[in-house]
């Protein structure tokens, strides 16, 4: 299988299963309606596991632009394939969102809560503060990318790695996911958010584009941090990527502060 097709297929499968568990919990008159956070966290972990099993042998199953970018920084992935991987992942995310919509066709009309519908396709903050939300996505994705590099440094029984990766996703969801819904993956948020915007979902609200920069930029910066920390601590490498990561992180947090000041809704939660 072509590597780009593999990333497309794997990400679509990931978003169908991951978005599907949120839909099962959020939409009215499903058998799982009203189930709790642990169901969603485990569902996403198993979705990642399945995606990795499906296409890992073909493309390495990044399924996440932040992972692709991070592996390239670490020297584990060729830079010339980065754009193609990211495009395939985002397109897969759109298709995964469409498939989730198809799976639950009668239930959209039965559900009045516009926010619950949007949450199936994209993430959002429990408390809106762009700086704090950036920090949450940065930390969560730093744990993800550093964790993947830790896992790659160890030897497991053949076929066990996808389960370990899935367990990592569950751990992030349970421990770090309650603030922003742990996008930790730009394709996981942007692709389905586009699907939400274009699909004829009964009674849907806006697609939340004012927040969309957080689950795109935050994971990319977090991926950089996780990678340079791994390189610094375990390889003793301090290079231009370390300096660039520090600069980008500072600029991102300053950007979050600027967005807080420009918010006109008065819904920005105070940190101090």
From TrEMBL:
It comes from Staphylococcus felis. It holds the Pfam family MIP. Its main location: membrane. The lineage of its organism: Bacteria, Bacillati, Bacillota, Bacilli, Bacillales. GO terms for cellular component: plasma membrane. GO terms for molecular function: glycerol channel activity. Signal peptide: none annotated. This is Aquaporin. Keywords: Membrane, Transmembrane, Transmembrane helix, Transport. It comes from the Bacteria. The keyword Transmembrane helix applies. It is found in: Membrane. The chain crosses the membrane at residues 6-25, 37-56, 85-105, 130-151, 163-184, 209-234, 240-260. Belongs to the MIP/aquaporin (TC 1.A.8) family. It is a multi-pass membrane protein.
């Amino acid at each position: 299988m072509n590597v780009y097709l593999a990333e497309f297929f794997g990400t679509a499968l990931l978003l169908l299963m991951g978005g599907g568990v949120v839909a099962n919990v959020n939409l009215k008159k499903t058998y799982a309606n009203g189930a709790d956070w642990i169901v969603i966290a485990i569902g996403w972990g198993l979705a990642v596991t399945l995606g990795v099993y499906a296409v890992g042998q073909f493309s390495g199953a990044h399924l996440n632009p932040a992972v692709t970018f991070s592996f390239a920084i670490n020297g584990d992935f060729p830079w010339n394939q980065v754009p193609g991987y990211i495009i395939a992942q985002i397109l897969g995310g759109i298709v995964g969102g469409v498939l989730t919509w198809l799976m639950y066709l009668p239930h959209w009309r039965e559900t009045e809560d516009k926010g619950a519908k949007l949450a199936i396709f994209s993430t959002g903050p429990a408390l809106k503060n762009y700086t704090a939300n950036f920090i949450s996505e940065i930390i969560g994705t730093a744990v993800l990318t550093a964790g993947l590099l830790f896992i790659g440094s160890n030897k497991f029984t053949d076929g066990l790695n996808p389960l370990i990766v899935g367990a990592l996703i569950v751990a992030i969801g349970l421990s770090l996911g309650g603030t922003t819904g742990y996008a930790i993956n730009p394709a996981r948020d942007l692709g389905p958010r586009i699907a939400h915007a274009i699909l004829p979902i009964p009674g849907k609200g806006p697609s939340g584009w004012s927040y969309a920069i957080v689950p795109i930029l935050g994971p990319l910066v977090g991926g950089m941090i996780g990678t340079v920390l791994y390189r610094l601590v375990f390889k003793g490498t301090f290079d231009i990527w370390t300096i660039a990561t520090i600069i980008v992180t500072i600029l991102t947090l300053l950007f979050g502060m600027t967005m807080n000041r420009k918010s006109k809704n008065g819904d920005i939660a105070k940190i101090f």
